[in-house]
Write a structure and sequence with these properties.
Layout lengths: L4 H7 L3 H8 L8 H7 L3 H8 L1 H11 L4 E8 L2 E6 L10 E3 L2 E6 L2 E6 L2 E6 L4 E5 L10 E8 L14 E9 L4 E8 L4 E2 L3 E3 L11 E3 L2 E5 L7 E5 L4 E5 L14 E5 L5 E8 L2 E8 L8 E7 L15 E6 L4 E6 L2 E6 L5 E5 L6 E6 L2 H16 L1
Antiparallel strand pairs: 1-2, 1-25, 2-3, 4-5, 5-6, 6-7, 8-9, 9-10, 10-11, 10-12, 13-14, 14-15, 15-16, 17-18, 18-19, 19-20, 21-22, 22-23, 23-24
Helix pairs in contact: 2-4, 3-6, 4-6
């Protein structure tokens, strides 16, 4: 039987050209890859090629959001953002998510710290970082341990955990690293200023991690995990433009080596930027984004808005308003309704290219049949 007309027409295009078309399908909409696989056998063959997935990841660079780790007061829930991926465990009672990066999630519960890989379904218990330390606040994060990794498909036990501890009584803030390879925490590196740390996700810029403190402290903690050094960064002087102290989140800026600060006041999101590789570089106010949108049910006077998370590498801020979770893309200024969950207090995105591997797994049997 002759091939359908559209199959014959598409087969006339060189494979290299069709590969360039398919690689441009957006990673945050994996269903488009599935639909493309049903168009014709040449497209199906390209999508199932083992080299296509690597090329696709290298082309897009930033893994899509596969799910949100939504924090409630006594639990954490993994909420899938695609029907193609859901980990075996999605509910964690009496557990907080501290951070998620490079394919791993750092969890904290009465049992202690643990790193969880949702794709592999594996977890690793982390010993306490508090031995030999005095503190009245702390936080921690996780990241890939390979300095040469492109972080396109990170998984497994090759990670490090960084903990930062604040001691306002002694006037000291300290940091240390843990590696599963050694099974040990490094010695404490300290700076002679005590702060009260927020238990919120850190931001990775170059080889430094940045942690926020409570608004009354007015400082940002910087931990260089390669040099094992701690220093403090002052945020912008909000009093110059805002009537009250402001909570804020940090993000990597689009420009390498720059830190972005986002502060929400009523119906406006204010953005500031700083070159962190230059110690004396000032904060520069970038712009202000209005977030009120009647189409999304956002009106002045609604409950909120207040920031509950951000997408590192995605230039996205998550915020609550009117008992619903919204996201705002800082590049396009587009506001999107995400969830209707009035009880959540944090939203931490889990990013992964694993959905492309699942797409190939779904399509592969059709390649054999056809």
């Amino acid at each position: 039987m002759a091939a359908p007309p559209h199959d014959r027409a598409l087969s006339e295009f060189p494979d290299d050209l069709m590969r360039e078309i398919l690689v441009r399908l957006p990673p945050d909409e994996p269903n488009r890859l599935l639909l493309a696989g049903g168009v014709c056998k040449p497209w199906l063959r390209i999508l199932c090629d083992p080299t296509f997935r690597r090329y696709y990841m290298e082309f897009h660079r930033t893994p899509p959001v596969a799910g949100l780790l939504v924090g409630h007061w006594e639990s954490t829930t993994f909420v899938p953002m695609t029907t193609l991926f859901a980990p075996r465990i999605i509910d964690f009672d009496d557990t907080d998510t501290l951070d998620a990066r490079h394919g791993r999630v750092l969890l904290f519960s009465p049992r202690g710290l643990a790193v969880w890989d949702p794709v592999l379904g594996a977890s690793w218990d982390i010993p306490s970082p508090f031995a030999g330390a005095h503190f009245d606040s702390w936080t921690a994060t996780v990241l890939c341990a390979d300095p040469n990794c492109a972080h396109l498909d990170c998984h497994g036990a090759n990670f490090i955990v960084v903990a930062v501890l604040g001691d306002t009584t002694a006037g000291v803030t300290s940091g240390r690293c843990y590696s599963p390879g050694t099974g040990l925490w490094t010695d404490l590196a300290s700076v002679d200023t005590g702060v009260l740390l927020n238990m919120k996700p850190a931001v990775l810029v170059e080889r430094s991690l940045f942690f926020t403190t409570r608004s009354s402290m007015g400082r940002i903690v910087r931990y260089d995990f390669r040099a094992a050094s701690v220093s403090l960064v002052h945020p912008p002087n909000f009093q110059l433009v805002l009537p009250t102290p402001s909570e804020f989140v940090l993000l990597p800026a689009a420009t390498g080596g720059h830190l972005l600060l986002a502060s929400m006041q009523q119906s406006t999101l204010d953005l500031w930027e700083k070159h962190v590789l230059q110690n004396e570089s000032p904060w520069v106010r970038k712009n202000s984004i209005g977030i009120m949108s009647p189409e999304d049910g956002l009106y002045p006077g609604n409950a909120g808005p207040y920031i509950v998370g951000f997408g590192e590498g995605h230039s996205v801020v998550y915020f609550m308003a009117n008992s619903r979770l919204f996201s705002i893309n800082l590049s396009s200024c587009r506001v999107t309704r995400v969830l209707g969950d009035p009880d959540l207090y944090s939203a931490i995105p889990y990013t992964s290219f694993h959905v492309t591997e699942m797409v190939q797994g779904i399509l592969a049997p059709y390649l054999i049949d056809r």
